[in-house]
Design goal:
GO terms for molecular function: hydrolase activity, acting on carbon-nitrogen (but not peptide) bonds. This is Amidohydrolase family protein. Keywords: Hydrolase, Signal. It contains 13 helices and 15 strands. By secondary structure, it is α/β, with parallel strands linked by helices. It has 2 domains: about 120 residues, Urease, subunit C, domain 1 (Roll); about 240 residues, TIM Barrel (Alpha-Beta Barrel), CATH 3.20.20. Strand 5, helix 2 and strand 6 form a beta-alpha-beta unit. Helix 3 crosses helix 4 and helix 4 crosses helix 6. The longest helix is centred in the first third of the chain and has 17 residues. The protein is globular and about 70 Å long.
Amino acid sequence: MIRSLISSLAVGLAAFSAAPAAAAEPVAILGEKVWTGTAQGTLTNGVVVIDNGRIVSVGTGAAPAGMPQVKAEWVTPGLISAFSRTGIAEVPGEKSANDTGAGGSPFSAALNAADGFNPDATPIAVTRLEGFTRIAVAPDARAKLFAGQGFLADTSGLPGSVFKDRAFAFIVLGERGASLSGGSRPAAWAALRGAFDDVRFFTARYMTHNDGNVLTRMDAQAFMPAVKGDQLILIEARRTSDLEAIMDFKQENPMLKIAIVGADEGWRVADRLAAMKIPVIVDAFSNLPASFSQLAATSENAGRLAKAGVPVAIVNLDDSSHQARLATQIAGNAVANGLPFDTAMKALTTVPAEIFGMSGLGVLTPGARADVVAWDGDPLEITSAPTAVFIDGVSEPMESRQTKLRDRYLSLDHTDRPLAYKH
C-alpha cells in the first residue's frame, strides 16, 4: 500500500514538474487611451502588439488581422512597487509566517530577504490583480540599522519569480535607526561609519577575528558591494536634518548609489536632492506629524519634489506586505495635491525601473518586456481596475484567494444549509 502511494506520488510530481509554463502568445491590446511612459505620450485609440514576451509595436490604427485582441479603456505598462514586503509575510502578526526581519539573529547586512520569499503568498495575486507586475521587496531592520539584502521579483506567483537577488541593501536611519543603535542619531551614524570601515579594512580586520567594530565577517562581505558603489543602498529617513546628513555622507562618498525611502520632509531640501540626483520613494499619504520626524509632512510633498526635479517613486508604506497595491490610490491623491498625472504614472512605472535598473520595464515601447495592463478606466481612479495583466507576454489569471471566496459565497446553494439557518 505504502509503495503504491509513493509510486502514485512520484508520478504526480513528475507530471507537475513536466507541465509546460503558460506560453507568451501574440496578442494585440487595444486601448481608448494608451499611456506609454515614453516620448509618444498618451495615445488615443492605441494598439500595443506583443509576441514572444516582448512588445513588437506601439501605435494607433487597426490591430494586425487575425491576431487575438484585448480591448480596454486604458492600457499602461505593468506597475512596479518600488518598496514592499510582499511575499515575505503571509500573516505579519504570526512569527512563523513572517520573514521580514530577525531580531534575534547575530546577522544583519547578510540577511537575504529572497531566502524567505514565497511566490504562493496570498498578497502576490492580490497585488498582481491591481496592475503591479514587479515588486522590490525589502527586509525589515529588527536588531541593527542594517536590515539586509532586498530583491526584485515578478508577481506571477510562479517558482523562479525572483529575477534579481541581492538587488539592494536596506538601511534604517532617523528615529528608527537611532533606537536600533543605542538610542541616538549620533550612535546610528557611528555604527554606519564603523560598518564602512569594517568593509574598507576587511582583510586586516577579519584576518584573525570573525567580528569587526560593527559587522560580523559575513555581514561585512554582504555589505561590500554597497560600500564599493556596486550595489544600490536604500536608506529610510524622514526628517530634514536626517536627509541633509545622508546627502553630506553621499558627498563624502560620491561613488555610492543611494535612494531614500520616506523623505516626508523631503520638499524642504528638494533642490539639493535634485542637484545630487538622489531619487526618493515616498508615501504621499504621509501628510500628518505622526512623529517628530514628520512635523513638516504635507500632501504636496511628492508634487514639490517632482517640481524641483527629484525622481519620485510612490508606494504605500503603511502596510507594505499586503497593501502595496494601494500605491495607485496614493498616486491619485498626489495628483489632487499638485503632482502632474504623467509624473504620477512615472512614479509607478519608469522611475522605479530606473532606480533598480530594470531594463525594458515600466514603458510601452518596441523591444521592451511585455509587462502590460489593460484597465476599465483611469488607473489612478479608485473605481478603476485591471481587466487583463500580462507579465513577459503571458496572460495572468485574474483571480486571487479573495475573488475565489467572493465567488464561492455569492453562489452558495442555500438548500444545503442546516435547518437552523433556513429561517
